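Hi support team,

I'm filing this because I wasn't sure whether my run with manganese (II) ion finished correctly. The job status page said complete, but I'd like someone to confirm that the output block is well-formed before I use it downstream. Pasting the exact inputs I used:
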Amino acid sequence: MQYDKKIYKTTKLFYSMKRELLIIAGPCAIESKHQLITIAKRLKKLGVTYLRGGAFKPRTDPTSFQGLGEKGLKYLLEAKEKTGLKIVTEILDSSQTFLFKKYKIDVLQIGARNMDNYELLKSIAKNFPTSTILLKRSFSARKKEYLGSINYLKMHGHKGKIIACERGIRCFSNGEYDRFTLDVSFIADLKRDKKFNCDVVVDPSHAAGRADIVEDLTYAGISAGADGMVIEVKLNKNYVPLSDAEQAITIEKLNEIIKNSIKIKKILN
Ligand code: PEP
Ligand code: MN
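And here is everything the job wrote out:
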């Protein structure tokens, strides 16, 4: 009896912690309806609340896969209706405003390459005043510049929630053993800054650029105080995504990462 009670307590704690941890997961890019819906259903079972997936992809090489565009947003909405997950996707340009409203996007992602695109920030603030925004830090932004972007949103009418995201900055090691350098000090600083009141998430995927250290970088971010994570996953272990293939982890791995992150949070709280 005593033992059962203990299990019950642990399970209850596990689920309440899961709700507290902000988990955004999904493929880098939406590639097909089957890929997205299958991933969404599996993430839902893990207790994830936000499904991410790029429909408009800002690729370094213009010949690389650029995303499915509107069709991708349509699949995201279908995934939301089927699973109840909130949907997160990147807006690249203010001309996409109509589509983001039409497909009921819950969280607008502003990518690292657009963090200081002030006209875009103004337009998003004006057109989506109550939507949640996931603001990725540019790979060259100082704290002052990052806060400036948040102020642009606020001063131009945005009143909704802003989720701050550290996704790695440019450094000399990049390309040798990582893609960008995860700046855990930035996470720690924001979390200790009494004037800063946004949730902070760690994106280990874009910093790592390789699947095998995504787990380690997540724990580093959570240990530094992050409220959650943004992680790219793939359909199954043999699937090769059309973008950011090297950094995509399996959903089984994500499950393990979530469980360990909850343990870390519990120790630190
Ligand atoms: C992404 O999240 O897929 C992405 C392109 O991220 P970032 O803007 O951080 O490069
Ligand atoms: Mn990506």
